[in-house]
Amino acid sequence: MSLTLHGIPVSKGIAIGKVRIIDRDPIEINEYFLPKQNLDEEVARFQSAVDLARQQLEKVRDNIPKDASADVASFIESHLLMLEDSLLIQAPISMIIERQCNAEWALKLQCDSLVKVFEQMDDPYLSARRVDVENVVARVQRILRGYTDLPNDPFDENLTNAIVVSDDLTPADTIVMQHRGILAFATEFGGLTSHTAILARSLGIPAIVGLRRARPYIKATDILIVDGSTGVIIVNPTDRILHYYKLRQQEQKRHKAKLTKLREAPTKTLDDTQITLHINIEFPEDIAAVKRVGGDGIGLYRTEFLFMNRRSPPDEEEHFDAYARVISGLGTSSTVTIRTLDLGADKQIDGGRHEHFLTANPALGLRAIRLCLKDLTLFRPQLRAILRASALGNVHMMIPMVSGLQEFFQISNLIKETCKELTKKSIAFNPNMPLGVMIEVPAMAICTDLFTEYVDFFSIGTNDLIQYTLAIDRVDDAVNYLYDPLHPAVLRLIKMSIDSANKADKPISMCGEMASDSRYVRLLLGLGLRSFSVNPEAFLETKQIITNSDMRGLSRLANKVLQANNREDMENWLELVNAGLDE
Q: Any idea which residues carry the catalytic annotation?
C-alpha cells in the first residue's frame, strides 16, 4: 500500500529510487565497572578503536573522486582532526582511569557533555557542528561494539541511484553525497533557505525538508518518489502512480532539452529590453555548471566555503588560487563578483570553536563584514588576494551585510591601505576594481540612496533581507513558515532599493534565492530590476521567462501587487503578472 508524505519543497525535480536511511540515532550504551588491573587494557582498546576510525576516514578521503570539490575532502579532514582533539579523545581516557568504567561509557559521557554545550548556545548552525561530533563518536562507538563496517555512514559507500532520508544534513553532507551519486534527499528538519537547501538547488538535487516524524513510516526496503516541486514523497507507489511520475520525469527532460536551445540566445525581453543574467557559485569547480548552461558572468561567488570544515583559515595564496581558477575557467572578459567572506550564523570556521562565534543570536551577531572588521587576520589575506586577482580579469568585490556608511568607510580605508601595500611591493592589481555592497539589512535598503555616491554597484540578498525584515530566523523550524518574499514590507524595501539605485544610475542586481524563483522573475522585472544572479540550475528557466516577457504593462501590474492590502488580491495580481495579462 502506498503512502503520501508532505514536506517543504526546496529543490525541483522528480526522483524515483530505493531509499537509503541515514540513521544517526545514538547506540545504546551501558556502564560497567572495571577492576584497576584491567584499566590499561581498556585504554588500549579505546585507542585501537580511535586508530581504526582514523583508518576508515582516511580510506574514505583517499577514495573521493578526483573531480569532487575540495570542500568534500576538507569535510573528511575535519572529522579526522576531531580524532586528534583532546576534548574528544583524551578526556574519555581520563574518565576510564578515574571512574574505572568501560570505554563506551566514558566516550558517551564526554560526547553528551560536548553536545550539551552546543545545545546551550541555542544556535541552529552550531548544532550542525554537534552532528559532526556525534558522527565521529558514533563511528568509534560502533568499532568498540565490534562493528568494523558502518552501514549507516553516508561517506563510506556508493550511493548511486539512492534517495537519502535523514533527520538533517549539513551542507558538507550534501556535497559529499552528491559526489556519491544520490538521486534526491529528504530530511525531517530544515527550511527553504537553509544553506543545505540552497546547495541542493545549486547542485540540481531534488530535495524536500521539514518532513516532521516521517522516518517511522519509511523502511530501508521501500521505493520512494520525491517530487521536489510540490514537497510530496510517495512511499511504495502503485504501478499507476509510478507510471504517472515517470511520464512527468520524461516531460521534465524534454523541458530541459528545450531550455538548452536558449544557451546562445541574448538575454532580452520581447520588447528588446536588455537584462543582465549572471550565476551564483560556491566553488571553482562550479564553472563547469556555468559553462553547461551558457553563463558568461558570476554575480555572486560565495567565498566562505574556503573557510569551512577546517581548523585554520585559508592563507592569501589559497584565496588567490581559488579566484584565479574561476577567472581563467570563465574567461578574463567575464564579470566575476567575489563576495568577501560571510562567516557566522550557519557558516562557521573551526567548527564554531572561536570564542567570538559563541553568541545567543548568531544571525544578529558577529557575522560577515562585522566579523571581518573585528578580526582583520581573516579579512586582510582575502582583500589582498581579491585585489591581486583583479589584475587577471573583470573582477568586482562585494561586501555582505553592510548596515551603515561608517562601516563602509572602514572597509574602503582598509582597501586603500591594502592597495598601497601592493603598490609598494610592485604587485599588480586593478586600482579601479568596482566595489559594491549587498542590500541584506533593512537599514541598508532604506538608506540605499546615501550609498550611491560611494559605491559602484548594489546587489540585493533576499535571503537575509527577508529574515531581518520579518524578524525570523530562516532556519528555525518553529518560525520559518513566516518567511515570505511577498510580504508587503519586503517588496517595498526591494522597490525602494531599486528606485534609489536606478535614480543614481548605479547598477543593482539581485543574487538572493528570490531571483532564482520562477514565480517572482516577472514581478521583479516590473519593479524595475534589470540584473539577476541565479543558481546554475535556475539559469535557463529564468532566461526563458525573461525572453518571453514584455515590459510594457509589467510595471503597472507589479505596482498592483505592491499596493495590494490582502493576500488574496496580491496572489491574483501576481498571477496576472506571470500570465502577462492585463486586468
A: 195, 511
